[in-house]
Every structure is written in C-alpha cells, then in structure tokens.
Design a protein that fits this description.
By secondary structure, this protein is of the alpha/beta class. The chain has one domain (8-133, 164-311): TIM Barrel (Alpha-Beta Barrel). The protein contains ten helices and twelve strands. It has helices at residues 8-17, 46-59, 82-95, 113-116, 166-178, 193-201, 225-233, 250-259, 283-296, 304-311; strands spanning 25-28, 63-66, 100-103, 126-130, 134-140, 154-160, 182-187, 209-215, 239-245, 263-266, 273-275, 278-279. The strands form three sheets. An eight-stranded parallel β-barrel has the order 1-2-3-4-7-8-9-10, surrounded by seven helices. Strands 5-6 form a two-stranded antiparallel sheet. It has a two-stranded antiparallel sheet with strand order 11-12. Helix 2 (46-59) runs parallel beside helix 9 (283-296). It is globular, with a radius of gyration of 18 Å. The two termini are 28 Å apart.
Length: 320
C-alpha cells in the first residue's frame, strides 16, 4: 500500500483508523565492506548467511538483502561471480520458502560497473540500484586468524560507484526491466531524485516504486529527522519508501520511520552494534527489536506475502 507521504491529513487519518500499511522489514545480512574483523557474529559464508536469514525471517523480516563474498579471498571481499550469488540465494530459499531475495548491485568499494551488474545473473526478485556517486572513505581492519583475506589495515578513499553518468543508472534499470527484477532505488541525498525522475520519464522503472533512503554514509544526507522529512518531499506518488540509518543512527531513524508509516532496513551490514559498546549477536536480534517497537505503536509486521503484494511482485517466490 502506497500513500501520499506529504499529505498531513492522510497521515492523521491512517493513525486514527489504524490503517498504516504493515511494516516491511528488510534485513541487510553482511555487506561488502566490513566483516568478522569488526564483529565475529557477522555472517560471511553462504551457510552463515542462510542461517542468519532464516533467523531474521522467523523474527519478522520479509526481505533479505544479500552481498555474496569471495571464498577465494577468505570471504573478506565482495564477490563478482554470479555463481556465488546463486549459491547464497539457493541456500536462503531452502530455509525461507517465501522471503524476498534482494541482491546488491553496489557490491563494494573499488568494483567496476561490469563487476557490479553481474549479481543480476543470479536472478534475484529485487536488486539495489544506487542513484548516484558518493565520496566514500572507509578504514578496513586487518583480519587475523582464524579469519583471513586482509593481512594489513587498509584505508579506502574513493568515489563510489566508480563511474557516474545517466547511462549507468539507465543500464542497470534496463537490465532489471528485461529480467523482471524490481529495482530498489537507493537514494543517498535529495539531488539524486533527479536520476529517479529520469528513469521514470524514460519508462525504465515501474510503479509502485521501491525507494530506499540511505542516511548517514560519508557524503550522504545527514541522518536527522529534518532531512528525513526533506527527502520525503521529493518522493514520486505511488512509491513504497524504506529507510536505512547507518551505525548508531540505525535505531533512532528506524523508530522515526516506523512512526511515520514508512518501512525499514536494518542489519549487520549497516550497524554492528546492538547498543553503545555492545556488539549485536545476530541480524535476528536487530529485527526482533524493530518488531517490538512497531508492535508498541500498533504497527503490524508485513509477511512476505503482504510485502510482495505491496511491492507489486509475483505471488509465487522465485526458485533457485
């Protein structure tokens, strides 16, 4: 169910009648930058990702956002091999029969356009589509035994994605359209809505749009309530909006989004802590918390079937 987020009377009506759409929870299992070197509970292997996806699914997640990691590099780096994505997708589907499979096309820092688009060959139901460049700086800690793949600390300082033009976002959107994959439009600041509208004008994306606000990474919009309201101002009608808060901002931004009738993405890709100074034990622990928050304000949790209907996805989950 999409509604006009900028209509205060519609918001008041939904609160009064208890008709907010069920909360779609997306769980970002692992990511393509940090790994077990910062939290040993972060899943890296296909089996670990599948098990944590299952636990998060049982807790209330209806979408699993997936980064495959390269086994040839000790799972320290993102994979660019579609077979690695197929392996993770298949294992998750075996444990979670109807969860929505969402593969990244962001991958990780330093990947080319050709490398990042290869995840689409694994045939996910949704795929992330970054709507423009970011100046990104990340300190990657060395990985000591029993993990491997990065013997020294690394400071990465680059523009990500590595190239930017109208053509790149159009290329990804066109490929997803051809393969019947729904794009998750990842918007990092207000200016990137120009690229969203470009895809709309060229009929490369279909309603209902799935728009993911990514708040808090380097050079992205600051994760404040004011900026969340400002981002909503630019959202096209008939869109489903989800919100990501990075690191310590995950909990407050998610809580605000839930109260506003939006949807959320949480998980160890975006935040390795449960609370200050305490590492999260699992992705499920983070899902369980937002489920409790939603229930306290009478917001129902979307089942995968409900999420599929709201997003305009086929009722029948893809098989792998």
């Amino acid at each position: 169910m999409a509604w006009n987020y900028n209509d205060p009377r519609e918001y008041l009506r939904l609160v009064r009648t208890g008709e907010f759409p069920p909360l779609i929870i997306s769980v970002a299992l692992t990511g393509g930058i940090h790994g077990k070197e910062v939290n040993p509970n972060l899943p890296e292997t296909p089996d670990e990702q599948a098990q944590q996806a299952y636990e998060a699914y049982k807790a209330g997640a209806s979408i699993a956002h997936i980064h495959a990691r390269d086994p040839k590099k000790g799972y320290a780096s993102p994979s660019v091999d579609p077979e690695d994505y197929r392996r993770v997708n298949k294992k998750i589907r075996e444990l979670c029969p109807d969860i929505i499979i969402n593969n990244t096309t962001g991958g990780g820092l330093g990947l080319t356009t050709e490398e990042r688009i290869k995840s689409l060959e694994a045939d996910p139901e949704i795929a992330s589509l970054n709507m423009g460049p970011l100046a990104w700086r990340a300190f990657l800690k060395k990985r000591e035994p029993p993990i491997s793949g990065r013997p020294d600390d690394v400071l990465m300082d680059s523009v990500w994605p590595p190239t930017f033009s109208w053509k790149e976002t159009e290329l990804f959107a066109q490929r997803m359209l051809e393969k019947n994959i729904k794009p998750e439009l990842e918007v990092y600041h207000q200016g990137q809505f120009q690229l969203v509208y470009n895809l709309l004008e060229k009929n490369l994306i279909r309603h209902p749009l799935l728009i993911q606000f990514v708040m808090g990474p380097p050079s992205a919009v600051l994760p404040t309530p004011q900026n969340l309201m400002s981002m909503l101002y630019h959202v096209p009608l008939n869109s489903i909006v989800s919100v990501i808060g990075i690191w310590p901002h995950q909990l407050p931004i998610s809580t605000i989004a839930i109260a506003m009738g939006l949807h959320v993405r949480i998980g160890l890709e975006d935040n390795i802590f449960y609370q200050k100074g305490e590492l999260a034990k699992s992705n499920a622990q983070l899902v369980e918390r937002v489920v409790r928050i939603a229930k306290e304000i009478d917001r129902p949790i979307a089942t995968p079937a409900q999420a599929r209907e709201m997003l305009g996805l086929p009722k029948e989950p893809k098989k792998y």
